Every structure is written in structure tokens, then in C-alpha cells.
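#structure-requests
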Amino acid sequence: MQIALGLARRGLGNTHPNPAVGCVLVRPDQNNRVIGRGWTQAGGRPHAETVALEQAGDHANGATAYVTLEPCCHHGETPPCSDALIAAGIKRAVIALEDPDPRVSGRSIARLMESGIHVTADVCMAEAAWLNSGFISRIALNRPYFTLKTATTLDGKTATATGHSQWITGPEARAAGHGLRATHDAVLTGIGTVLADDPMLNCRLAGCEVRSPIRVVLDAGLSITTDHAMVRSATPDMPVWIFTSGEDPPPGHAEALADIDGVHIIASPQPVSGHLDLKFVATCLAGEGINRVLIESGGAVAASFVAAGLIDEIVWFHAASLIGGDGKSAIARLGVDTLEQAPMFERISARQVGADMMETYVTKRQ
């Protein structure tokens, strides 16, 4: 199952709207020889089980299948994986996690058992749930799993008072940040960051350029232009989605943006105090099949997501330097008056990346 989980990780950020699944087929009568392995391919098709079964061929008859998520049992663009496993003649299925999708949710396990296949469930369940936290969030909460990524000095500053920020962290940390982009379906920022830095927000790791996520911009007043780097680089394969309330844009501006292949403008409710409705944004992204979103933004957008209770995870890169109180903070004002009001997080990992530290936190739910 650990091998299957490792295979599933290869699909993270590349399989939406489907979950990232891994599958390993072994022959118990041949000293557990691996005869097939697979993971969910780009765009969610083909499924991991299909890939593994194609590799195994006739050798799948009598095999054991290790799958990180309950196989599908409903007809979509492809036939059900549970039927494929049954038809292949597997004798045993080891499943890490029941699929939360109500179209599946235990039905495949029942079908496999009714067909005489011995099923062992809940193997490495916690690891499988963590791996597919985005898919689970979208199905159960109707919103993606949001990870806030930031790179700061030791005192939590992202830039000097003049806005100088390149580069706070070193090349190894920046490469790790690009790796995060490759494992998320979308990367989200605010118009303030676009106007200040004109970022591309693509993945520039060698060999991972095709893993660039959908770029999402929160832009209530539609201030982004056709000259910005994200818009210039927009393609159907690397699109830009712009959430806007359309407040008095220049004549023809929205039309010029919408005419660019790869730019998608999403009309949002009127903003409150200048901020778009983040729960609308989250629901809309979920409706588009987005499982995992990486937030790379300024302090205002970061604080808005924290205040809305939408941050599930924080990946924080710390450089061994100080800027001081006049620098720009990673998180803007939250209005916390007492410690009891402060959002709480739990650190789950910490490692050195070059000269910097990379720490991961998850939200402590009340």
C-alpha cells in the first residue's frame, strides 16, 4: 500500500476533478511479484486501476489489488473500475480509504465482495485521507482544500517598507515553492500582487512545466490588463481565471480580456468593503472540479482567507533574516484582540531547505 500511495502522489495537482489514486497488482502465488502498477493520469483519465490492469494483462487473474481509494462503481467517461477488477479475475482487494463520493461510498466494496473477492479495507487510511484531502474537502464541504504558502523573514515580513522582496529566501526554497505549484490544481493570488510584482505563477521546475496550475486572480475592479504576464501567457492548457464584480472597468476592457484564449472571467457578487465573497469563490472553484488551491498572495488576501476560516494548511518558508516593524507582513490585520480569538495551527513538519526552513502547519478545527 505504501507503494500505491507513492504512485498516487505523482498525480497530485494533475487529476482534477478526479482524486489522485494509486494501484499496485501483485501475485501472491509468485512471492508477491508486482505485475502492474498505475496512478490516475492527467485530467483524471485513465484511472489508476485501468493503467495497472493493462500492464498486468492476463496475469491479473488471481492477483491482489492494492488501491489507495475505493474503486469507482458508476458509469462516467469510462466503465467502473470495480467491474474491471472483477472481470480481470482478481482474488483480493486491499483498499486504503472508502470513497466519500455518494455515487460510490461503499458500493464498490460491496460489489467486489458480492463477486467473491476478499476485501480488506482501511489499510493506511489516515495517509490516504491526507493524500486526498482536497478531493474529500470538495465532496464533503463543497470547497477545495486551501494551502497558504508564504516566504518571510524570521519576523514574518515579506518585503521591506519600500516593497523590495527579491529574494528573501534562497534558490532551494524557491524551487520547493515551484514544486508546491505542481501539486495543486490552482494557484490563487490577489490583484495587489499582480500589480506590484506581475508574477507568472507557473511551475518553472525543469521537466514540470506541463504541471503548471490554473492561475486564479481575485480582482474586484478588473484592474488586470492584457499586458500582464499571466494574461500574456494564458492558453487553454495554462489558463487564467479572473474573479471580478465588474465595477466600472474601462470600456471594452472586459471584452478584450475575454477574447484571449485561456482567459476566463467569472462574475462575482458585489464586494463587501472592497473584498470579494471568498465563500462564493470557494464554491465556484469546487463546482469547476478544483480539489487543491495554493494561495500565493499579499497580506490582505491571506488575512481574508484566514478570517473566513478557509485556510486548511500553511507552508511557511523562513529565511534567517530580519526586516523589522516597518516591513510588509505576511498576514494583514485580523482584528484579534485576545489570544482566544487567534486562529490556531498545528505544526506537522519542519525541514531545512538550503539556508531556509520550510514548515507545514494544519488548522486546528474547533
